[in-house]
Specification:
The chain is α/β, with parallel strands linked by helices. It contains 7 helices and 6 strands, in the order βαβαβαβααββαα.
Amino acid sequence: MKKKQIGIFSGTFDPVHIGHLILANYMLEFTYLDEVWFVVTPHNPLKEANSLLDGNIRLKMMKLALQDFDNLRVSDIEFGMPKPSYTIDTMTKLKTENPEFEFTLVIGGDNWVRFPRWKDYERLVKEFKILIYPRLGEIVELTNQLSENIQLVAAPIVEISSTFIRESIRAGKDVRAFLPNRVYEYIITNKLYK
């Protein structure tokens, strides 16, 4: 029996915004994926931990964002893992705990350019499929020996960043169009990013 194909879209999501949902939805509808799981990272090894909103708040916002989507799910798997979280450890744990699924890593072209800095990146390439979405100004080059497991996807380029959202909220801007409705309400009600 063919295994269900799960895309893993990992990040700090501080906060999750419509750009994240657009990309996940595109991957779901225009690639081989059956579901996309958003893995909320308590601490990205390439980011300062103390600059992030509490992990449980980011997890709550992700759950609010995905309420209306059947095949977009949230995972808190990294909350029970040593920090910082490394993608190879997360993907290996997901694969071990869910042998009935096949996991694909979903990353942006900006991350692909920095991929050799990732822990055990050679293992990631060998053991998992990788779907890469384009980012403005990033040229993604794939060598022939990698192309079996790695695919560049012609997803729309969405130039919204969580940094932009946070800074705009601090500046008193109305950015409700950039955020899922429930997430926007949660941020405003709880006076986040002020």
